[in-house]
Design a protein that fits this description.
YutG-like, mainly alpha, 167 residues, binds magnesium ion
C-alpha cells in the first residue's frame, strides 16, 4: 500500500524529498544535528500508517475527479476555486498532522499560512486541481516533524537520566 501512495504522490508532482525539505525547515531551529535523511525517514514512517494512507487516497482522488470533471456542481466549482470557507481539505489533512499529538497541529497552522517549497508550487499550479494535495503535504510534513520532535525529546531525557545515574 505504501508504494501505491508514493506513486500517487509522484504522479501529482510530489516527491518525498520535497516533503522532507519542509520537515527540515520546520524542525531545524529546534533540533541540532538534524539531517535531511532523518527527515526523509520520518516522512516514510508517517506514510506507513494505514489511516494516513486512506486519508491520502481520499484527498488525491477528490482532486483528480474534480480535475476530470467527474464531480457534480456546485461542489466541483467550490473545490476548483479552493473556496476559503470550504475547509474540508484542511480538516482531512489535520487528521494526518495530529497522528503524533498536538505539536503537529501547530506546524500545520504555520504551513497553512506560510506555504513554501513544494506546497507553494502546488498552490500556484493552475493547470491542476491541488486543493486537497497542498494540505495533505502540509499534514505529512507536520506529522513527520512532530515525530522528530518527540524523538529528540526522548533522546534528551534518556541522556539526562544517564548523566544523573553516573554522577
Ligand atoms: Mg487546500
Amino acid at each position: 500500500m505504501k508504494d501505491i501512495i508514493i506513486e500517487r504522490l509522484e504522479e501529482r508532482g510530489v516527491k518525498l524529498k520535497a516533503v522532507a525539505d519542509i520537515v527540515y525547515t520546520l524542525q531545524k531551529p529546534y533540533s541540532e544535528n538534524l539531517s535531511i535523511d532523518e527527515c526523509l525517514e520520518s516522512v516514510h514512517k508517517v506514510l506507513e500508517k494505514r489511516e494516513v494512507q486512506y486519508t491520502l487516497l481520499t484527498g488525491i482522488a477528490l482532486d483528480k475527479l474534480t480535475e476530470k470533471g467527474h464531480i457534480e456542481e456546485p461542489l466541483s466549482s467550490i473545490i476548483k476555486s479552493d473556496e476559503p470557507l470550504y475547509g474540508v481539505d484542511e480538516s482531512l489533512a489535520l487528521a494526518i498532522a495530529n497522528i503524533y499529538g498536538t505539536i503537529g497541529f501547530t506546524s500545520f497552522g504555520y504551513l497553512d499560512k506560510n506555504k513554501f517549497g513544494i506546497m507553494e508550487k502546488l498552490d500556484t499550479n493552475h493547470d491542476k486541481v491541488n486543493t486537497f494535495l497542498d494540505d495533505l503535504v502540509a499534514g505529512i510534513a507536520s506529522a513527520a516533524s512532530a515525530r522528530i520532535a518527540h524523538q529528540k525529546r526522548n533522546e534528551k531525557e534518556a541522556k539526562m537520566k544517564e548523566e544523573k545515574e553516573v554522577s
